[in-house]
Amino acid sequence: MPEPTPLALPEGHPFGPHNLPYGVFSPGDAPRRVGVRLGDHVLDAGALAAELGSPHTALLTGPTLNPLLAAGRPVWSEVRAALTTWVTDPAHQAAVERHAHPLAEVSLHLPFEVGDYVDFYASEHHASNVGRIFRPDAPTPLTPNWKHLPIGYHGRSGTVVVSGTDVVRPSGQRKAPADPAPVFGPSVKLDIEAEVGFVVGVGSERGRAVPLEAYRDHVFGLCLLNDWSARDIQAWEYVPLGPFLGKSFATSVSAWVTPLEALETARVVPPARDEALLPYLDDSSAEPGGYDLRISVEINGEVVSEPPFTTMYWTAAQMLAQTTVNGASLRTGDLYGSGTVSGAEVGQCGSLLELTWNGERPLELGSGGRSFLEDGDEVVLRAWAPGAQGVPVGLGEVRGTVVPRT
Amino acid sequence: MPEPTPLALPEGHPFGPHNLPYGVFSPGDAPRRVGVRLGDHVLDAGALAAELGSPHTALLTGPTLNPLLAAGRPVWSEVRAALTTWVTDPAHQAAVERHAHPLAEVSLHLPFEVGDYVDFYASEHHASNVGRIFRPDAPTPLTPNWKHLPIGYHGRSGTVVVSGTDVVRPSGQRKAPADPAPVFGPSVKLDIEAEVGFVVGVGSERGRAVPLEAYRDHVFGLCLLNDWSARDIQAWEYVPLGPFLGKSFATSVSAWVTPLEALETARVVPPARDEALLPYLDDSSAEPGGYDLRISVEINGEVVSEPPFTTMYWTAAQMLAQTTVNGASLRTGDLYGSGTVSGAEVGQCGSLLELTWNGERPLELGSGGRSFLEDGDEVVLRAWAPGAQGVPVGLGEVRGTVVPRT
């Protein structure tokens, strides 16, 4: 019986040949290059493509995924098909092993240059919870527009950081309703938002809307995303123009972008719509637009929530259609987040704001009681999706530790 | 008496050697290069610098201003001093003329690659007017936070376009309060916002605030900006997360970026503050942070408003301090807008929303009555500032024509 090779994976490994997410890595101080994750290794995709004579080598040499993202869906499929062949065909095993680096020995970088970053608010449970907490006197928790369009706003693309980057606690103004004037200091309500991010590959022209059915021609893949939020700063600043400093200090994304093709088996029908949708958003006769992604939120190694992405009211295709319906153009590298993923149950909420009901019901963790995050807390988001034959498709984790400003 | 040279300017020309704004141009189909405006000519700054042996030639060769922006204040001063010498010293006249192109014979391009675009809301008159129109039932027109911090939000950097670019009328959802459900179609309340934009040269580190006094180390210069706005789309979408599609379809900037050094004589003390400011915003003992910029708004050749920038409550330095006080980093090419500039008088408002009081009092123009913009309308923003010896410093115009979506 032959020795198992270094790249042999146990049955059902979530980063097996059925997954093959893309990232950007560097071995030591070497320049950044495009990597593909296989098990606990990173394949140097550009070097492998060059050795095996791929016509797409130039798209895979780094320092970002942007050239691959811009290449378009037919090329995405060709590259993925080639990679699948390389990692499964024994004829290529030696080449693959020559270009494999143990994950633990490389640095992972922000995988793409971010164009515009838009954050949505697509979970009905999350939006309802936030409405109850922030606007207790409003007649209904959801604003009247919520079921007619996916609400979104632009975030700061310059502070999108890769998993593993420390998050410096933001300072800012806060004012409780009874305070006579705002005070300044480090946020005392630092929170997370567990989200899924969608990465635009192919841009679009200004003045043209991207219809629902063109979603997969434009969106390359998805990542996990933590939209760090300072609730005290946000509550004081956000009326009337929306969140700004409460969010703009950091948004973490996974180091791995999972191509949509790897998630075909995870597609599901979104929840029933309570309001008739205008034609540009009406997906009642479209292919299933949801994804069955099972997310977990860990604080200091303890799982505090398991948000189910199946519960999201608005789909990624609808968010893209909304972004462009006014004629706004897309660029390669545009990123949009789903908004916090929260299910119907308490243990399915993607933010501490909800999990502790704005601090009224602190979590009891092994590391102590938590209303919001303390300095030193490490947050990890993980997710997986059901794949073919019951093999999970793993998404890259998003890890971040809160540090005080020095 | 010698012949006047092609570059001889009449006394007091607003684009004389005291001004020298930067842009990006191409003569015909040639590659984009950095230009400096002198009168009605564009000097090819890179070619001139190369011929005259400048050490900064590489910063001036294009295709954007970003390398110059990133170079920092000492270099900005050196480049400006060299340009001033070149265009005023007869010894360099022949070289300057060799590299001068008539404005009418070149194409002007977006002068810098935009990082993040933030839009503020810094005019008390504008914010009060909008409050009265959009929130008539609120106890006060200004929200409680307004005088404690400059309110801002992120806009879409991918749809920032240069003056002269047509603006496609956006489509979207709108719903009047009495309508049973939203309807979809082209905006019927397309508006302008006359603003001043500030262009960040030198970036900053994540986790560090940029104090008021570092403003001129980071901001390179300013431009005119038209933040096109669809009021009907905005009114329906903006609660609770702020403007999105009502603004994201286009933001026009002037082709010329005026360096701050050209506007030293235009600095003025901002209005008295009605609330004590937290230390990071307190400019009571700082150098004057306002600018005396006289703006005019033309529709189809007719001046409809003359907004005075002196009335802005918040200064550019305060907006920058606010943007970074939470630790958000800056990047070269970040752009922030002042928000609509409106004075106390009706004829000083920078938006049709205010000028027509949301359409209740249409303007009577030679081209017909106008509540909001019609297809084919051309809007031009112009501005100038007082310079030394009474010579005005001209800002680049922002021109745009509304076209229907095809």
From TrEMBL, chains A, B:
Gene Ontology terms for molecular function: fumarylacetoacetase activity
Pathway annotation: Amino-acid degradation; L-phenylalanine degradation; acetoacetate and fumarate from L-phenylalanine: step 6/6
Domain annotation Fumarylacetoacetase N-terminal: ranges: 18-111
Enzyme nomenclature, EC number: 3.7.1.2
Presence of the UniProt keyword Transcription in the record: no
Highest taxon of the lineage: Bacteria
InterPro entries in the record: Fumarylacetoacetase (IPR005959), Fumarylacetoacetase-like_C (IPR011234), Fumarylacetoacetase_C_sf (IPR036663), Fumarylacetoacetase_N (IPR015377), Fumarylacetoacetase_N_sf (IPR036462)
Boundaries of every Fumarylacetoacetase-like C-terminal domain copy: 118-403
Identification of the protein by name: fumarylacetoacetase
Species this chain originates from: Streptomyces koyangensis
